[in-house]
Design a protein that fits this description.
The protein is mostly helical. The chain contains 9 helices and no strands. It is flat, with a radius of gyration of 22 Å.
Length: 195
């Protein structure tokens, strides 16, 4: 489905919800539920809290859509994603304000930031990814993987630059990923060291 089709479908869905169409509300949840959970899991570690914020996102989102507070109905997904992020951030702000001033209270508050160990693991993984990328045999593989996955550049822009259609681009990315996976697996068996 193309971007304009998605925008039109989102606008139509929002209008159906404003018109009181209950099946449209269920469709909204079904369509965006997985993405909202992914966003919340990146911010919140506690599964029960993810579920609470997930429900709040759709409850508040539906209330705002029904009230006509959604400015650009074609941006329905972005609206819900932003709402989910804001609810998670507000949860942590409230938690910080309600924590007693003593150190024991601070210890009970779970930080949304990664722990030092997690940070080190991520840095090590990033170094390993960079090393494996550099070991890829062709510059095109390196460039495509960097730009598409790390830089999150638009597929259509990359297709235009490479002079290929979307199907050809998918094949290029697939082959590059397979070469990367092979090298990644080999680097994992290099005596237990990631360096």
């Amino acid at each position: 489905m193309q971007v304009t089709d998605l925008a039109t479908a989102a606008a139509t869905l929002a209008q159906r919800i404003r018109d009181g169409d209950r099946p449209a509300e269920a469709e909204l949840v079904q369509t965006f539920s997985r993405g909202i959970r992914v966003i919340l899991r990146h911010i919140v570690r506690e599964p029960a809290l993810v579920e609470d914020l997930h429900q709040d996102t759709f409850r508040i989102g539906l209330e705002r859509i029904r009230a006509g507070a959604l400015r650009d109905a074609s941006q329905l997904g972005g609206f819900l994603a932003g709402l989910a992020r804001n609810l998670a951030i507000e949860h942590f702000r409230k938690a910080r304000r309600s924590v007693p001033e003593d150190d024991a209270g601070l210890d009970r508050l779970e930080s949304p930031d990664p722990s030092p160990t997690e940070r080190l693991e991520r840095e090590e993984d990033a170094r390993r990814v960079a090393k494996v990328l550099e070991a890829l045999p062709t510059e095109r593989d390196r460039a495509v993987l960097r730009r598409f996955y790390l830089g999150q550049e638009d597929k259509d822009v990359l297709c235009a630059e490479l002079g290929v259609d979307r199907l050809q681009f998918n094949r290029i990315v697939h082959r590059a990923r397979e070469r990367f996976r092979t090298l990644w697996a080999g680097s994992d068996n290099s005596g237990g060291s990631h360096t």
